[in-house]
Amino acid sequence: MTTKTALLRIRRGIGDSAHYEDFALPFEDGASVLDALIWLRAHRDPSLAFRYSCINANVCKECTIAIDGAVRYACTTRLAAGRPIVLDPLPGKPHLRDLVSETRPPRERLE
Amino acid sequence: MTHLDADVLVIGAGGAGMYAAIAAARAGAERVLLLDKSLVGRGGATVMAQMTVAAALAEESPDDCTLHLADTLAAGRGLCDETLAEVLCCEAPERIREMGEWQVGWARRDNGRIAQVAAPGHSRPRCCYVDFLNTGPAVAATLRRRVGRTEAIRRIGNLTATDLVVADGAVVGAVALDSAAGEPVTIAATATIIATGGLTRIYRRNSASANMGGDGYALALAAGAELVDMEFVQFFPIGHLAPRLVGMDPIMWDPFRYKLGGRLLDGAGREFLAAYGSDETTRYTTSRDLATYAITKEVAAGRGSPHGGVYLSFEHIPPGELEAAFGPVIDRLAQNGIDLARAPVEVAPIAHYQMGGIAVDARMATAVPGLYAAGEAVGGANGANRLSGNAIPEALVFGERAGRFAAAAAKLDRPNWRAGAAVEAIERIRALRDGRAGDLSAAVLLDELRGLMWDCVGPLRDTAGLDCALSRLAEMRAALPQLAVAPGPAANPSLADWFELRGSLVAAEAVAQAAAARRESRGAHQREEFPDSDPGLARSQRVTMTAAGVIVASLAA
């Protein structure tokens, strides 16, 4: 049995130091982009920043990012084998780090 | 450094926390501060609730909260705190009707009455809901709107309470990590409510939100409060297993069973619940603890489905009935390649709810002055096994009480903030946010912890596994000061993971210690070597933490 591979090109860092970093990981049928991000943080890079809360139920809407340029939920977008998927933070929101943007409503912030 | 002041501080903004904040403001608290690690009203367990909310509304048939209480006590296998269980059952109707007035949208019959369905363990149709599988999101949205309209409530997201601040034996506030900026924040509070939910995220298979790692239990223990019934973790029997399903909660199958039945079959397609003493020939009646035990035993005996669970089949239900019962959900299943009319799905137990929790009185007050708890974070009301439908009422009823009584106490008390008592917690955040070199990260240990708890402190427990878990948990706790943390304060996941791991390890050890001490099987706690309940052990167990951080569980009479 051959093991299939998924490829992710992920926006890393913040501001002028932002760049893309490529990751390859084992592909499992049916897995989501969020599954892949969680796997990468646990097994490859504990500093990889992305947001999520409900993991799979698609009720919290926190995992919204840009996937291949379109704004989508990481938890419901399926991973693909072989073809690189490009992940960016949400456009039009203040960028904090990697795939994390400021998404709190203004009245729910500290300042 | 940012400093905030509150009459009532609420930690956690799920159903219990939001209700507590609303009730505190209603009781006259002028400065209510509502925090969440995640986004306010969008994380935690409430938003995940699919369907049932139990309350003796008597809309469908005669009912009374004493009957709901009798069912709750029976499900709890002799361990419920009867005072808390009575509060839960007898105030649930008031809270459910209040949510109705706030336009939550309870499903109604053609005659306008609130629809109530029968769920296992309930002696009559008692569970209301919001269609379709939308109870949790609707409850959360309703409370979010209400919170947003309440002038006295200030809400802040992405703020994690890392430590409670204790002075002269009383909780006087908290230190929190502003995860967006990576900065410590101090909060002086006259009364503090822990509404952080449960701990099911510490299990590999779980139906939790990411922020349910049990940190509230760790905060309570460290402040000197006691935990109760921690060995009783509810494993929801029919969590989705295969085929891989995205965009739906893994506990979604229960409502299908409520409405339509649905047969549980072993790997060879045979019914098996009858062999465990549960006859489902007429309707869905098997309690969660028994179904989890039966499925786990079938799989262990080699009679499971290909992915290590059992089959759930709706093939006997006409497609028209399936569509009528679940409307748009059928389309979401189709997008995942699932056609219930043609093939079964695979299901298996999944960590779902923590019966145990912080010990409180009927005012939701702990034994530590200034400290309250609400919702799933509270232990005792559900004993050794929770009845389906009791979690949302628990969040609303206990939330309302915690807010009301905390506000009343805050009026009589005065703030007693002691900056010196917060220094250690502040310095810990500052030291970690600059990063620390090391070979091992908290993310790796969190992954290991979830596997360890599932394998050794899961649905079926034995002495060797519990001993193994306890020694490894101790090693992991000892490793905390050496773990690597990536540098950079803003939105740093490894900083958040370090605090998550610290709290989860305390919660995990509380469960494992309590499980090891209870040498019998009862409700959700099943020991291989002690398969029967011991009538002499029909009492709750307290867990405490010593000043040196040692976690102690004792069943001593």
The chain-level mean pLDDT of chain A equals 92
Protein structure class of chain B? alpha+beta
Q: Specify the biggest β-sheet of chain A.
A: 5 strands, mixed
Beta-strand percentage range of chain A: 25-35%
How far the N terminus sits from the C terminus of chain B, by CA atoms, comes to: 48 Å
CATH architecture of the domain at 432-554 in chain B: Up-down Bundle
Sequence stretches where pLDDT stays below 50 over 5 or more residues of chain B: none
Q: Assess the beta-strand content of chain B as a share of residues.
A: 15-25%
Give me the CATH superfamily of chain A: Beta-grasp domain
Question: How many helices of chain B does DSSP assign?
Answer: 13
- By oligomeric state, this entry counts as heterodimer
Shape of chain A: globular
Portion of residues in helices of chain B?
25-40%
CATH-defined topology of the domain at 432-554 in chain B: Methane Monooxygenase Hydroxylase, Chain G, domain 1
**Could you name the CATH class of chain A?**
Alpha Beta
Radius of gyration of chain A: 14 Å
Number of domains of chain A: 1
What would you give as the CATH superfamily of the domain at 432-554 in chain B? Fumarate reductase/succinate dehydrogenase flavoprotein-like, C-terminal domain
Helix content of chain A: under 10%
The SS-based structural class of chain A is mainly beta
Examine the coordinates and then state which fold CATH places here, giving the name of the CATH topology of chain A.
Answer: Ubiquitin-like (UB roll)
What does this structure look like?
The complex is a heterodimer of chains A (111) and B (557). With 111 residues, chain A is mainly beta. Chain A has one domain (5-106): Ubiquitin-like (UB roll), CATH 3.10.20. Chain A is built from 1 helix and 7 strands; from the N terminus they run ββαβββββ. A 5-stranded mixed β-sheet of chain A has the order 2-1-5-3-4, covered by helices on one side. Chain A has a two-stranded antiparallel sheet with strand order 6-7. In chain A, β3 (64-67) and β4 (70-73) form a beta hairpin. Chain B has 557 residues and is of the alpha+beta class. Chain B has helices spanning 15-26, 65-75, 82-101, 135-148, 215-222, 253-260, 288-300, 319-335, 391-412, 423-433, 442-456, 463-479, 493-517, and strands at 2-11, 32-35, 53-54, 127-128, 153-156, 159-167, 170-178, 183-194, 227-228, 233-242, 263-265, 310-313, 345-354, 357-358, 371-373, 542-545, 551-554. Chain B is built from 13 helices and 17 strands. Chain A binds chain B through residues 14, 28-32, 41-43, 46-50, 52-62, 73, 75-76, 78, 96-98, 100, 102-105, 107-110, and chain B through 2, 38-40, 42-43, 47-48, 136-137, 148, 155-159, 178, 180-181, 185, 208-211, 243-250, 336, 441-444, 446-447, 484, 486, 488, 490-494, 497.
